[in-house]
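How it folds:
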Amino acid sequence: MRIWKNDFKLEQLNAMNPGTIHIALGIVFTAIGDDFLEATMPVDERTKNPPGILHGGASVVLAESLGSVASILVAGPKESIAVGIEINASHLNSIKSGNVVGRVTPIRLGKSLHVWDIQIRAETAENKPICRSRLTVMVKEGKA
């Protein structure tokens, strides 16, 4: 079942990024389906911690970015704003290089609260799970 309020193209989503943390961390939206959104993020000097592995906070940024943008797409970007109000993350495996892919899918889509499941995996043939997150987003009428 399609959950998005309007048709959105990846180019439109990525065009919203200038001046945001998405640019700073190299986050790029790469796929949109009827009930999911995906984005990639590099594991490089912008996203690693001092021991040289992906920083858990960078994974959380990717997770919250996916969930917040997904909420806007569900509610309508001209009608609503979406604000993350709670997030958790279980860091399952480490990664030293390459890219990670995050995929967000809905758990619950209410009028004012959305709950999302975000799975982040290594962009490799093994698709090793890196992080699993749950995000609760408050949706409000109006613009930021």
